[in-house]
Amino acid sequence: TKNDLDGIRRTVQSVIEQDFEVWKLAIVVSSESDSSLDYARQLSESNDKITVLIPDSLGIYQGMNFALDNLKPKLTWFLNGGDVFATKSVLSKAVKYMTQYSPGILIGGYSITENGKRKLFVPNASKISARRFSLNIRSGNHQSMLFDFSGEAEAKFNLNLEMAADFLLVLKRLRNQPAVRVPELFVEVEPGGVSSTYIEKVWIEKQEARREIFGKYSLDYLLGIIWTQGVKLKRFSRILICKFKRGN
Question: Which pTM does this prediction carry?
């Protein structure tokens, strides 16, 4: 979190209210933050489940790597400041699913409210391979995922990617073990993330991730190119339709 006191308050409250009580919360706060840093420190002093981490520099992926390096967690959930769990039973349900299926990643649904409209993205129950995740625009985002970083699993975000390091991390882990998707709404995501603002850069970096995982001359890399062009065409068509409607 950085300069979002109201957002981090909402996030922390949604964690504290969970009916599953075996958790620890690491709040990664920019050293250039507003009163969010004072708020986080006060929390950690009054609650031994809460830790404050202050990295030298703070991008989203740098902050998450900093937490991984310092805490060496097993089951890990990444929330951005302002994101909240959808209900008070998200953690308890997620842990039950992890016990039942033992996936490397558990993927649930998320919602986002923009311009007064709430959009829901809740998946059907299924296992999901690296290929399927790679070609599914609604595969999920890191806020709707519970990672199991135990054992020798990949547990670092590639900082060479500014927008799609979470996408690459998931693909790396799916090479060895499918993820499991469940039809549960896990998280309400705060709108206005950088990935939605710089969508063209996201598409480019996702294709770089596909090339690293599948190889430049693989069928999966080619399918990624075709998929990306299809998504671009769909988005362009929607923009044209909206302009046409406004014009009439």
Answer: 0.88
